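Section 5.1 Outputs to date
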Amino acid sequence: MHSCPPLLVVLPPARLRLRTKTIFLPSTHSCPPQTVSRVLNITLPEHVLMAKMLARRVCADCGKGYNVANIKEGDLDMPPLLPKPSDCDRCHGKPRLVIRDDDKAEVVEERMKIYRSQTAPLIDYYSAQGKLQDFAVKKGLDDTPRLMRELGIPPAEGEGAAKKAA
């Protein structure tokens, strides 16, 4: 008999209804419906999140994404994600960077308003149950290994050895 893993919800959600306290796993999964056992709330100061969102750029030719924001504030260290010559055979590290329509200030501000209104009740709900755990982003994508450890996901093959050698 195999044991079912505890069910984890990560906030911010794409869409999650507060009244949904039991999660139904896909029918191919052998575990019965479960209640949420832990909620991981990924946090970042809103002004930093806004700065990162407003600094997103894409290559007009190939669509590869970049971020031109360089955030260094307290323990936050998020360098820009800039083009490299090896990124694209067409762009050779010198893409025509553009701002997508959905990354313009008025759209981002509306998305943040929706995020706050939809996520605050979930944070309150799961906090009251003692299931909420915050995960503070400090290094952007470089936080991924720390996030994976927090989630109990083992490092990818060779990743642990490479980190130890560095």
